[in-house]
Amino acid sequence: MLQMSQSDVYSQIQNDALLSSSLWVNVALAGLSILLFLYMGRQVTEPRAKLIYAATLFVPLVSISSYLALLSGLTTGVIQLPAGHPLGGEEVLSQWGRYLTWTLSTPMILLALGLLADVDRGSLFTVIAADVAMCVTGLAAALTTSSYLLRWAFYGVSCAFFLVVLGALLREWSVSARAAGTAEIFDTLRGLTVVLWLGYPILWALGVEGLAIVESVGVTSWGYSALDVLAKYLFAFLLLRWVAANERTVATSGTGVSGATPSDD
C-alpha cells in the first residue's frame, strides 16, 4: 500500500460525492438500525432469543464503526495495481476496511442463523471459521500488488471457503431448522443471505479490484453498500421481528448448540 497521509485520503473521499455518499448512507442506516433493534428487543426475555438478539445487534454496531473508519481514511488507502491488471500501474483507492467489517459482522449473522436453526457446535464452528477465512483471503486478494495472478489465486481460495458456508446453509442447517421448528423463517433468511452474499464476489470480479469492467471506485463502493444494507439491516430486521413474536418456538427448539446430539438425523 502506498504511503499517503490519513488526511489526504480523507480529503480524496470527501471530494468524491459518489464515494462519500455510499459510506454516509450506511452510517445513517446503521445508526437507525441500532436504535430500532434496541426498541424491538426491549421485551425479549428468553435466553436463546436474547442471544440471537445480541449476535444480530452486533451487525449494525460493527458496521457503523467500520463505515466511520472508512470515511476517516483510517481503513482506506491507495494501492498501485500490478502489471496484467486492466488498470495495471494506476493508483486506486482501496477500501480494505470493508473486509475487516465483514470479518467481524458476517460471523454474527451466521451465529444468529445457527442459533435459529439449532445446529450443533461443531458445524457452527466450522462454518464460522470458513467464513472468517473467506474474508481474510478476500482481503489478501484486494491488497496483493505484487502479482495479478496471485490476486486471483487468493480470490479463488476465498470462493472455496465461501462454498463451505453455502453448503452448510443450503443442506445441513436447513435440516436442523426443520427439526427445530424454525424452517419457515430460516428458509427466508437463508435465501436472502445466499443471494446477496453471492453478489460480493461477483462485484469484486467486475469492479476495480478484479476485471475493472466497472472502473469507478464510487460505483463499486455503492454496490457493496447496497448489498450491506440488504444483507445486514434488512436481514436483521426480519430475524428480530420474528424472534420477538416467536420466543416460545425459539425456547423450545432443539438443543444442538447447547451441546446435545444434533437434531438432523
TrEMBL record:
Source superkingdom: Archaea
Keyword entries, A-Z: Chromophore, Membrane, Photoreceptor protein, Receptor, Retinal protein, Sensory transduction, Transmembrane, Transmembrane helix
Entries under InterPro entries matching the protein: Arc/bac/fun_rhodopsins, Rhodopsin_retinal_BS
A Gene Ontology cellular-component term: membrane
Membrane topology summary: Multi-pass membrane protein
Subcellular location: Membrane
Single biological process term from Gene Ontology: phototransduction
Residues that span the membrane, as ranges: 20-39, 51-79, 99-117, 124-143, 149-170, 191-213, 219-240
GO molecular function: photoreceptor activity
Pfam families per record: Bac_rhodopsin
Family statement drawn from the similarity comment of this UniProt entry: Belongs to the archaeal/bacterial/fungal opsin family.
Protein name (record): Bacteriorhodopsin
Native species: Halosegnis marinus
